[in-house]
Amino acid sequence: MDSTIGSIDLVVIGLYFFIIIVLGLCVARQTQSSEDLFLGGRTLTWGMIGFSLFASNISSSTIIGLTGAAYSSGIVQSVYEWISGIPLIIAAFVFVPLYLNAKITTIPEFLGQRYDRRSQVFFSIVTILTSILVETAGGLYAGAIVLKTFFPNIVIWQTTLVLAFFAGIYTAFGGLKAVVYTDTLQALVLILGSSILTYTLFEKMDFSIEAILAAAPDGHFSIYRPLGDGTLPWPGLFLGVPLLGFWYWSTNQYIVQRVLGAKNLKHARWGVLLGGFLKLIPLFIMVIPGAMAISLYQGIENPDMVYPTIVVDALPTGLVGLVLAGLISAIMSSVDSTLNSSSTLVVIDFIQPNNPKLTTKQILNYGRITTFVLMVIAAVWAPMIENFGGIWVYLQQMYTIFVPPIVVLFLVGVFYPRGNGHGAFITLCFGTLFGIALFILQNLGWWTVHFTITAGIVVGVSSLLFIIFSQSAPPPSNEIIERLTFKKELINQDNDTKWYQNYQYWALLLFLSIITLFFALK
């Protein structure tokens, strides 16, 4: 692959960096309180929420990984993207009104109100550690590796430091609003660049669907794989993927935080559903191009080189810079989101409860200092990931240990009013230990079940633990049950009677779109 980047491309990338920093710092001038820093002053509208949800989720490793996986094993892993609409629909109907009614700043706060302080602290610590050491550092490292394919002379640790610094500057001073504003721009750049790349590949194939399908191996464009498939067996498609998606899209602080900052419930719901529709896009502008590339660029042994090869070969000078700007957008939008959410968790869940007399200015300063500290930790840790090799892949699968008990506390807990703090804490402890046991057995070769199926099994066991042990302690107060569990009234709360503003119609359209893909990609 000829990795030479033209001067026009460098100008485009430099201009992108300049616009992002100026936009972030302009927003920073409006950040005067802790609510501004952590929740954007609760003024976020649906468009910004939706585009920010999309941008925060799409990292450079997502783009490279989806394209490479589609090239080597087909489009099956695209399911993780477009099935996101299901948990987002559930969130719009149930969890968004519960969260906004509770007036929380962090998602662990919801567990603190629903159960007790123990569950809040457990979930908050797990989220902070995974956000900084896995999401932020992993995003920085993957981004640096990707950029190195285009710029061979760059040094990994210097690149991670520069990326972390740029994202950290506007995040620390501008807070969530700066993150959302820059994410919106980054999402547009990412979609535009990827769309141009997709169009170019279709053009090379003479816009012939038949030619694309004929050139691909059997099953390349199917999402249904046999039970023994190592990529995604069909039971995991229906069992583990939706459950992991629910955790990510409905309970993950760095995703849900922009929903908590919504102007009102209507904008929160519209924004969540817009995010669901946007998550359909990667199938067409990231996954299918990778699947098509097998007929245009045969013999690429390393799947991670598929995307760089396509970009450099298919695009003219200038457009390469635009696509690279989109790639950098993916890095920055993931990093700024995790930094902002992690600093929010540290301040709101730990510093403020231990110092209840802190002034608004002090909380603001703590938030900014925490962001910089976490930025440095992530930047320093990121280059070390290279030394872990295969272990780093295992760390990604560790989500199947921590996620299932947390899913149960939310998904079962809001529909099971009898659930209490005792049952929640036992579930977190023993559900996590059960997940760890299966993880160890898997690495010893004694448990060969795919991790998506394992996640479903651990959720089932954790649900039983939660129900059984909740029965052995007094039920929650009526006030907790009334405020923090599901009631049918939540579905129609603040819903608009105009059909085009009624979120339920849009949720139905999104659901039908997802079901259509299940049938179309068989």
How would you portray this structure in words?
The chain is globular. It has helices spanning 7-28, 34-39, 46-57, 60-73, 79-82, 85-102, 107-114, 117-150, 156-204, 209-215, 234-238, 240-251, 253-260, 265-278, 281-296, 306-314, 319-354, 360-381, 390-397, 399-411, 421-443, 451-470, 478-484, 489-492, 503-520. The relative contact order is 0.18. It has a domain at 7-221 and 249-386: Sodium/glucose cotransporter (Up-down Bundle), CATH 1.20.1730.10. The chain is mainly alpha-helical and 522 residues long. It is built from 25 helices and no strands. Helix 3 (46-57) packs across helix 9 (156-204).
Number of helices: 25
Number of strands: 0
CATH architecture type of the domain at 7-221 and 249-386:
Up-down Bundle
Give the overall shape, derived from the CA principal axes: globular
Distance between the termini: 34 Å
**Poorly predicted runs:** none
Q: Return the structural class.
A: mainly alpha
Instruction: Please name the CATH topology of the domain at 7-221 and 249-386.
Output: Sodium/glucose cotransporter
Mean pLDDT: 88
CATH superfamily of the domain at 7-221 and 249-386: Sodium/glucose cotransporter
| Cα radius of gyration in angstroms | 22 Å
Could you estimate the helical fraction of the residues in percent? over 70%
Largest sheet: none
Question: SSE order, as H and E?
Answer: HHHHHHHHHHHHHHHHHHHHHHHHH
